[in-house]
Amino acid sequence: MQRLLITGFSGFVSRHFLNYLVEQNLSYEVLGVDVNPPRFTLSDYEPTLAMSFRTVNLLDQDAVDQILEEFRPDYILHLASFSSVAYSWEHPADCFRNNTNIFLNLTEGLRAHGLEACRVLSVGSSEEYGNVAAEQLPLVEDRPLIPVNPYAVARVSQEMMARVLVDGYGMNILLTRSFNHMGPFQDERFVIPSFIRRILAIREAGESEGEIETGDVSIIRDFVDVRDVVRAYYLLLMEGRPGEVYNICGGKGVALADVIREIGDIVGVQVKSRVNPAFVRPGDNQIVIGSDEKIRRDIGWQAEIPLRKTLEDMVAYMSTN
């Protein structure tokens, strides 16, 4: 049984990745590592997956070395990061140190223990592209990167280091620029779950209409269902080309204002939004739409789950949790 190490194991993406493995009847020995314990039961994934979990701070090189020496993974899905743009503005140095150093510790550990052949999926972000004009869309992978927030700068640094490791040491690293993904289990610190929770609160208060405070809802994003995303991650781990970067996107843009209206329609509430200047992030990208041509060509992946289905499933999950 091949061995799969998942960092950032306790996040919602990892949980969906495990669901995908089970649904596809794919057997692996899985070790999850995270600074926080998972909010799900590991035994739910047995007997398809041989599961274990360890609390590990990836900033501790000795701890990383011990994990790699003992487990000796064939594959690593590297999800661990501070992934909030808002947090990166509040704590830019902390975000940069964390996101770059945990990747360096992981790759240094692989080299130290002769595991350069281990296939590593290094997850990046569409935030790396920065602000672009509408006529420059959709975003393609060879476009120059102009990050405009601390989180994006850290992701670009991680990506550039990965390319150096592939070229210089022959490491087996594949890269993504993942666009905004969402789905059940997502933390309410992120924008769409936050909208849903507050709109559900209007309904739970017995009201048929209400108002929520937001940032700039005119911004347009390329939303992808997390279940499509994890399918892409698995296919890239198996079939992607080392050193290459792949957009994971839907190729369509939707304004946040339209997402709010869609949620209101699903919940049965008429929603108005009011901009709170405190929620508006500096230099926010106004429009982000990606091209999925490269990933479709290389591994045959494209997003399949429509936005309405994603939002319906999120509302259903959050209504009972």
List strands and helices in order, with pairings.
Layout: E1 3-7, H1 12-23, E2 29-34, E3 50-55, H2 61-71, E4 75-78, H3 85-90, H4 92-112, E5 119-125, H5 150-169, E6 172-178, E7 181-182, H6 191-204, E8 209-214, E9 220-221, E10 224-225, H7 226-239, E11 245-248, E12 254-255, H8 256-267, E13 270-275, H9 293-299, H10 307-319
Parallel strand pairs: 1-2, 1-4, 2-3, 4-5, 5-6, 6-11, 7-10, 8-13
Antiparallel strand pairs: 9-12
Topology, number of strands: 13
Question: What structural class do the secondary elements suggest?
Answer: alpha/beta
CATH class of the largest domain: Alpha Beta
The assigned CATH architecture of the largest domain is 3-Layer(aba) Sandwich
Helix share bin = 40-55%
- N to C succession of SSEs: EHEEHEHHEHEEHEEEHEEHEHH
Return the CATH topology of the largest domain.
Rossmann fold
Cα-to-Cα separation, first versus last residue: 35 Å
Widest β-sheet, arrangement of strands: 3-2-1-4-5-6-11
Notes on the structure:
The structure is a single chain. This protein is α/β, with parallel strands linked by helices and about 325 residues long. The chain is about 40% helix and about 20% strand. The protein is built from ten helices and 13 strands. A seven-stranded parallel β-sheet has the order 3-2-1-4-5-6-11, sandwiched between helices. It has a two-stranded parallel sheet with strand order 7-10. A two-stranded parallel sheet has the order 8-13. The longest helix has 21 residues, at about 90-110. It starts with a strand and ends with a helix.
Kindly summarize this structure in a few lines:
The protein has helices at 12-23, 61-71, 85-90, 92-112, 150-169, 191-204, 226-239, 256-267, 293-299, 307-319, and strands spanning 3-7, 29-34, 50-55, 75-78, 119-125, 172-178, 181-182, 209-214, 220-221, 224-225, 245-248, 254-255, 270-275. The chain has 321 residues and is an alpha/beta fold.
